[in-house]
Amino acid sequence: MSTHAEMKALVWLGPEDMQLRAVPLPEPAPSEVLIETSAIGICGSELSGYLGHNSLRRPPLIMGHEASGRILQTGEQTTFADGTAGQVGMRVTFNPLIVCGTCDRCRAGYTNLCRQRQLVGAHRPGAFAFYVAVPAAQCWPAPENLSDTAASLAEPLACAIHAVTLAHVSSGDSLLILGAGPIGLFCLAYARLLGITEIIVSDMLPTRLAIAQQWGASATLNARTSDVVQSIQQICGGGAMAVIDAVGATTTRAQAVQAVVPGGRVVFIGLHDEESPLATNYLIRQEVTITGCFAYTHHDFGIAVAMLKAGKLRPEADWLEERPLAEGPAAFAELVKGTAKGTKIVLRTK
Q: Residues in domain Enoyl reductase (ER) (predicted)?
């Protein structure tokens, strides 16, 4: 590729300032591949970045870490995450969390907590562009029967899989999910796949609650019109066995602690508020376990890819909206304001 070649990309320039610009085409390293992007999802963490509230993201920056596309150029090392030999023309999705594999956290199996971790779209240029360079070892093949948009969902689905895994729920347990955004819905889908039948989902938007019902929630709660904690006490008879907070607001964190059964587990995955006061004495007396949840492991990502390949999660029109990459600035603005029609927006380059 010519060093003078350019491409179009969404460049975040500062709080609520994102523009489509011409930027240099990425030059992949020998261990990397150049991907011609097809579908790139907008993540909630990128919305906080767009507002200037995320310390990981500093302008000017090309965000985007939920993506799929086709290999345009390979380097000297082309082995994919599943052992497949990468070749030009192959369709892929990729794990954007790059880890060292050698630090104490990686050796202990906590690759998501790698001391040297880097995220595509935060520490290095991301996929809100026509091309992105990523290590070949981060790529997973996408079969031809899997749509580009479905393949781009592997990363957020992996986040949800990790959260449900940390909740330690099993058949017969009750699970409360706070928030019916993409991560909350994906938690619901994976919990259902594990055989969990009593899953209550709370949100403030009736449209999202309707989707949760369609996806198999046993009950839904409108947090705007009902007392979530009181309702859960009645539905589950003392509290849910586990709670996943997929919002991360001070209100939902407090609800999670109060809604879980004594001795139960709360998983915090939402990153809305930086700090939240908690009823610590109550936590102690009820022996509530709080677990933070960050990203996913290599194993979680593999499960997500397999789940998508098996058709267990499909991008249906009632919750997902596709738009051209050029409409990215408007999509970000609408998601922040809460006026977007879709629960999830995926930007398309073709």
A: 14-347
> Can you read off the two tokens belonging to residue 135?
């290590």
What is the number of structural domains in the chain? 2
Among candidate residues 54, 63, 65, the one with its CA nearest the CA of residue 159:
65
Cis preceding linkage at 156, omega within 30: no
Q: Which amino acid is at 2?
A: S
Residue range 236-279, pLDDT digits in tens: 988 999 999 999 999 999 999 999 999 999 999 998 888 999 99
In a shared domain, residues 143 and 268 = no
Indicate the burial class of 140 (C-beta count within 10 angstroms; 0-12, 13-18, 19 or more): buried
- What pLDDT, in 10s, does the model give residues 6-35? 999 999 999 999 999 999 999 999 999 999
Show the domain range for 222: 159-292
Compute the distance between CA of residue 322 and CA of residue 235 in angstroms, rounded to an integer: 37
Instruction: Tell me if the pTM is above 0.85.
Output: yes
Residues 166 and 183 in one domain: yes
Per the domain annotation, does 308 fall within a domain? no
Buried-exposed string 122-132: b where 16+ CB fall within 10 A, e elsewhere: bebbbbbbbbb
Nearest to 91 by CA among 45, 176, 149, 49: 149
299 closest CA partner among 106, 126, 150: 106
Q: Are residues 11 and 147 in the same domain?
A: yes
Nearest to 261 by CA among 275, 248, 242, 247: 242
Q: What is the DSSP letter of 25?
A: P
